[in-house]
Amino acid sequence: MTTIVFFEPDGTRREVEANPGESLMEVAVRHGVEGVDADCGGVCACATCHGHIDPAFFGRLLAMNDTEDAMLELVEDQRAANSRLLCQIQVGPELDGIVIKLPGVRR
Ligand code: FES
């Protein structure tokens, strides 16, 4: 098991367990974490799974593709240098202890 720490939009800390191979979005939804709506079901078409990744882990992630980069423009006002869409990141042991701050879904 891999431990993932989410900070919900109101600052609530949620420490949850993740299974290898599931996406960070799936982890958040499975545990009912607030701030991840995942409207598109994980096909990189909504940006409602936006999170700010712990800088200590950011460099361990696979680079984002052009589609994810374009989708992040939907949350331009919340976007930061460490922004990613959580449906595009697969859980592996290298992410144990990662911290993700959720800015909240914009409509
Ligand atoms: S769940 Fe829609 S972009 Fe990630």
Automatic annotation (TrEMBL):
One of its GO terms (cellular component) is cytosol. The keyword Iron applies. Residues 2-106 form the 2Fe-2S ferredoxin-type domain. Keywords: 2Fe-2S, Iron, Iron-sulfur, Metal-binding. It comes from the Bacteria. One of its GO terms (molecular function) is metal ion binding. The keyword Disulfide bond does not apply. One of its GO terms (biological process) is P450-containing electron transport chain. CDD domains: fer2. Pfam families: Fer2. Gene3D superfamilies: 3.10.20.30. InterPro entries: 2Fe-2S_ferredoxin-like_sf (IPR036010), 2Fe-2S_ferredoxin-type (IPR001041), Adrenodoxin-like (IPR001055), Beta-grasp_dom_sf (IPR012675). Its cofactor is [2Fe-2S] cluster. Belongs to the adrenodoxin/putidaredoxin family. This is 2Fe-2S iron-sulfur cluster binding domain-containing protein. It comes from Sphingorhabdus contaminans.
